């Protein structure tokens, strides 16, 4: 498996001398969806700033495409799209079209190609109707989609999303999940996502990390992380409701194991129910 981002025992220092450490290893694999969980202030955004070369790690190892991003981010700038928590700060041009075109214009692409690319991303995101709108007047979900469009228009290899679901209604949340999953499965875009939305993790994750107290406290495939109650509690995280329900069933002595997904959960309950019925019939 190709590691496109690797951070090991990194330390960042803000101008006011705040030290942010992340001991242990964090890797993002090519083509995978990597989710980072952790309480407020656990260093998720700081790591993102390190990955895009905005902050320098003064210790340890940090590489993106095997390159130190602080020294040479410009060499792979086009390969990395980023959407920070507050889309308002990222949307600056007078129209949605201009905003999405910004990076392409900065990169001095021919205007014809810019138009084609922006129209392509607008149609991928079903945003064609918004092209001429003033970004300031868009709804929160629309602004988030425009920011994501601006990050995706260069067809980056990695998309970093910092709290992409903050303040979104359920429908907008689902459409953003569908969108990023579409880019991951159809364009091979590697995703690195931070979120506090525990209920959504199983829909957006191949690998999940937990950051706690300056270290990588846990790493697991898919929903595996939700079975580890101690890890979650130590990191001030809460199991999604599906897993809380299964925990109660297990505590009650119900013969069942934690599921991988809601569908798997439903099947596991049905299977356990049928086993009990059969047991009663036989006895
Ligand atoms: N510009 C800054 N100057 C000084 N300290 C900062 C700055 N930005 C973040 N920090 C500090 O760095 C630490 C890590 O913050 P960071 O934003 O990386 O956390 P986070 O895990 O993304 O949190 P959240 O879930 O709240 O977004 C915190 O203690 C925070 O106070």
TrEMBL record:
Q: Which Gene3D superfamilies match?
A: P-loop containing nucleotide triphosphate hydrolases
Which sequence ranges form a coiled-coil region, renumbered to this chain? none
An example Pfam family from this entry, by short name, is ABC_tran
Give the highest taxon in the source lineage. Bacteria
Annotated Gene Ontology cellular components are: ATP-binding cassette (ABC) transporter complex
The family annotation for this protein states:
Belongs to the ABC transporter superfamily.
> Would you tell me the protein name for this molecule?
Energy-coupling factor ABC transporter ATP-binding protein
In its UniProt entry, the species of origin is given as Alkalicella caledoniensis
């Amino acid at each position: 498996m190709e590691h496109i981002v690797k951070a090991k025992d990194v330390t960042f220092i803000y101008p006011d001398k705040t030290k942010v450490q992340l001991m242990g290893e964090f890797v993002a694999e090519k083509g995978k969806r990597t989710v980072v969980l952790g309480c407020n202030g656990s260093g998720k955004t700081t790591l993102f700033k390190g990955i895009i070369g905005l902050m320098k790690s003064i210790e340890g190892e940090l590489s993106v495409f095997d390159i130190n991003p602080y020294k040479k981010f410009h060499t792979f700038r086009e390969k990395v799209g980023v959407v920070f928590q507050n889309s308002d700060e990222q949307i600056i041009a007078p129209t949605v079209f201009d905003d999405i075109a910004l990076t392409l214009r900065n990169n001095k692409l021919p205007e014809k190609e810019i138009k084609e690319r922006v129209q392509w991303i607008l149609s991928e995101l079903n945003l064609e109707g918004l092209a001429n709108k003033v970004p300031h007047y868009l709804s929160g979900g629309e602004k988030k989609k425009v920011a994501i469009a601006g990050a995706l228009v260069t067809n980056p290899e990695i998309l970093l999303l910092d709290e992409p679901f903050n303040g979104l209604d359920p429908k907008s949340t689902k459409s953003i999940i569908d969108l990023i999953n579409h880019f991951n499965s159809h364009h091979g875009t590697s995703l690195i996502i931070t979120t506090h939305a525990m209920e959504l993790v199983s829909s957006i994750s191949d690998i999940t990390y937990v950051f706690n107290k300056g270290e990588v406290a846990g790493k697991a495939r898919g929903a595996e992380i939700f079975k580890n109650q101690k890890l979650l509690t130590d990191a001030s995280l809460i199991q999604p409701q599906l897993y809380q329900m299964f925990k109660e069933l297990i505590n009650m002595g119900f013969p069942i194991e934690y599921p991988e997904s809601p569908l798997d959960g439903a099947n596991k309950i049905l299977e356990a129910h049928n086993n009990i019925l059969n047991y009663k019939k036989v006895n």
